[in-house]
Amino acid sequence: MAKVKGAKPDLSTEEKIKEAARKVFTQKGYAATRTRDIAEEAGINLALLNYYFRSKEKLFEIVILEKMQILLGKIGPAIMDDRTSIEQKVEQIAEHYINTLLANPDIPLFVLGEIRNNPDKFANMIRTKTKIVDSAFFKQLAERRPDMDPLHFIFNMLGLIIFPFIGKPLLQLITGIKPERAATLMNERKTLIKTWFLAMLEAN
Fold first, then answer.
1. What average pLDDT values come out for the chain (204 residues) when binned by 10 residues?
2. According to the model, what pLDDT value does residue 107 have?
3. For residue 45, which phi and psi values (nearest 5 degrees)?
């Protein structure tokens, strides 16, 4: 029988479980998720899930590592590159983050929520991924504005990029904007963030 054009290929049982885990963990968080919830979402029995993955913790580790790789994977190389300017780094970071979060709007709340609930578990993972205080970006900021802690600029930049996604439900409620308009605004911010960031660097 010919394959239906555009039809999705059957997922393996292991991938079905991981896909279900991504969905359930993102919706409920680690603490509120049961392995039975994941099995039901995957359409399999609990024994089969336990055959592929020994524990909820193992599945969660896979999911959180995937999410963090999506969120942070390209940021480390950008901030560590001593060949690019501050302006280029801000442009790259804004472009990457906004594109990533438009495609994966659930990531910030999920990752930040789990880090807040268990900071020690993720501390080493995050430090390894970013190393912000040892980065070329940090050193460039310190050289440009020796009168101010570079972390202020980094906090402001991340706030400009990430807060609209974290606060999206509230922002849509109080402004009445539609999802399409919200996406347009976020794409516009790719350029605006660079402008605002450079203005902060020059401000007295």
1. 42 90 90 93 92 89 84 83 94 91 85 78 59 90 95 92 86 88 91 94 88
2. 83
3. -90, 165
Dist CA 133 CA 56 (whole Å): 34
CATH of 12-54, one of 1.10.530.10, 3.40.470.10, 1.10.10.60, 3.90.1150.10: 1.10.10.60
Question: CA 124 from chain center: how many Å?
Answer: 17
Structure tokens, 9: 């290929």
The domain 63-202 is placed in CATH, from the list 1.10.357.10, 3.10.20.740, 3.20.20.140, 1.20.120.80, at: 1.10.357.10
Count the neighbouring beta carbons within 10 Å of the beta carbon of residue 161.
22
